[in-house]
Amino acid sequence: LESGSKKKIPPVPSRKPEYSANNLLEKGKKQIDYSKYGPGFSKELIDEMENDKEFQDAVSIVLNIEKGYVNDETDPGGETKYGIAKKWHPKEDIKNMTKERAKMIYYNKYWKLNNAHTLPKDIRKAVFINGTNIGPERSIGYLQELLGIVPPTYYVGNITRERALKADKKE
């Protein structure tokens, strides 16, 4: 308006942009249904597992092989689902286990157990996948024997980590 005019212009109503940076972040964020993981795992641990890309890559290999529910009397693990065996996890409801719960068991008891997750990337992945078949401690023990750590401790400490790093660099 020109100066001196008495006509008032109504203010433009403010509106929140539909696609602000914060809205886009929220829309891209994965919604987690924590109930699918069952009891015994904190939300923080579930979030950590869901955001661990290396683990997600490794566990996807296992879950592509270990599919669904099996109760084969000739299988030494007995009743299994997603590769989780009742013999080694007797308190688990195998038949009704969700894939999310299986992933948490793999993360907590295979990936992070005994510090295996601190090994170099390719070695860690191999130890994890092998551990889903023969047990995480045995898998670490075999690695330690290959690295000349005899007798094996079945735990990844400084010596195992240092030797694994040296072996990884030689490749």
Tags for this entry?
171 residues; mainly alpha; 5% strand; flat
Could you characterize the architecture of this molecule?
It is a single chain. Helices cover 47% and strands 5% of the residues. The protein is mostly helical and 171 residues long.
Question: Largest sheet at a glance?
Answer: 3 strands, antiparallel
Radius of gyration: 25 Å
Bulk shape: flat
Mean pLDDT metric: 85
- Sheet with most strands: strand arrangement: 1-2-3
Structural class per helix/strand content?
Answer: mainly alpha
SS elements, strand count: 3
Helix content: 40-55%
Number of helices: 7
Percent of sequence in beta strands: under 5%
- Outline the low-pLDDT stretches: 14-25
What pattern of helices and strands is seen along the backbone? Answer: HHHEEEHHHH
N-end to C-end Cα span = 76 Å
